[in-house]
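Risk register update: the risk of archive-format incompatibility is retired. Evidence:
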Amino acid sequence: MLNWAFKSSKQKITWDYITDRPSSIQFNNTGTKDLSDYFIPLSKIKPFWFKNLRVSKDVFNNHPNVKVCPSFVELFRNSYAFVAPCDFQLKITANGFDFMQTEEGWLKISSHTALPAEVGGSQMGPDWDPMHQNVKIMSGLQLGCKKGHYNIIFLPAYYHDPNSRLFAPPGVSTITDNCPLDLNLNLFIDISNLEPGQQEVINISCGTPLAYIYFPFGILPFEKTTITKKMRKTFIGDYNKQLDEYKNSY
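Archived output:
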């Protein structure tokens, strides 16, 4: 049932934007954000080392390279890259971070770890290693589903930069027709190299892949539409509650 639903040509991922820019500034002369500012098919921006590889012609006499390895082929064919929509800078200290972007409106930044003590401190709990700080990037975009539900898998953009200071750990999110997903990205930074009072500056260029988003049943078409989202009533638990309501309705 699940496989059939998401191989159907009628299935689409819908998207909308929820963060307006100032009225005097427009995205792409349309007044709205463009999905391609953030979300690019990985097949179009494969890492240069992979793109430059040539398939081994004789697999019996020459050891074939990763150009024909199913795991690489599947990843690059059925994923999107979540890219930086603009240049931005993070200034990291042991106590938190500052964020600067080229212009307000492209991104908003939050954290699951660098929260003031008066609002609960780290949401990762007391046993989480405090040397791994979270930076949550919020695009202001939402993804929905024309019907049914769909899972997407977040993966690190390892093959573009295996040494990146910003690491996107694996994660799974579910999109449904009545519970759209805010397109946010959780990144983590190892700050164990920072001495007290020391600061590290991380510069990210526009177009840099920050994470891969894998579509397990293949790339689906996108359609711009207006998404109606349920308003949140509590600080936590809304996502699971809405998913439970959705599952119980079927």
